């Protein structure tokens, strides 16, 4: 074994600096910056800065650290755009991931609701069938009246049978 405690045939883990950056923290801050870049407040601040920049380079004071073609100002805008575009894309990707998770949850909830509705429909059908098989008071009264009428007809139609038959 080597003095460092590892074998020569085993590759080292990483050389150089090892940064432990939490992608969620970076994502949260990039979303904040991207949201700020899309506000009217940011545009107003940037407009004021550009007007002051031009005024200081062309106006009365004419410090001229960035003369008329304003190359330094253009460089600042290019740098800003180079950082703003990836930040906005990162924010959009994170929002897309949140939307995807939300959509999956909505689909699962909709499927559960559909299953619950189908179960309740089956249970309601079973209750209707069970209630349909029970005898109601009106149904029983009607059936008894029909039986009494039928018995009365049979008794009236029976020839030679008298109800007052006294054998003595």
Percentage of residues in strands: under 5%
Query: N- to C-terminal separation?
Result: 134 Å
Total DSSP helices: 4
Low-confidence stretches: none
Rg measurement, Å:
46 Å
Q: Can you summarize the main beta sheet?
A: none
Write the H/E string, N to C. HHHH
How much is the average pLDDT?
84
What count of domains describes the coordinates?
A: 1
Work out the number of β strands: 0
| Principal-axis shape | elongated
> Structural class given helices, strands, pairing?
mainly alpha
Percent of residues in helices: over 70%
Characterise this structure.
By secondary structure, the protein is mainly alpha-helical. The protein has one domain. The chain is 70% helix and 0% strand. It contains four helices and no strands. Helix 1 packs across helix 3 (71-133). The longest helix is centred in the middle third of the chain and has 63 residues, at 71-133. The chain starts with 22 loop residues before the first helix and ends in an 11-residue tail after the last helix. The model has no long low-confidence stretch (mean pLDDT 84).
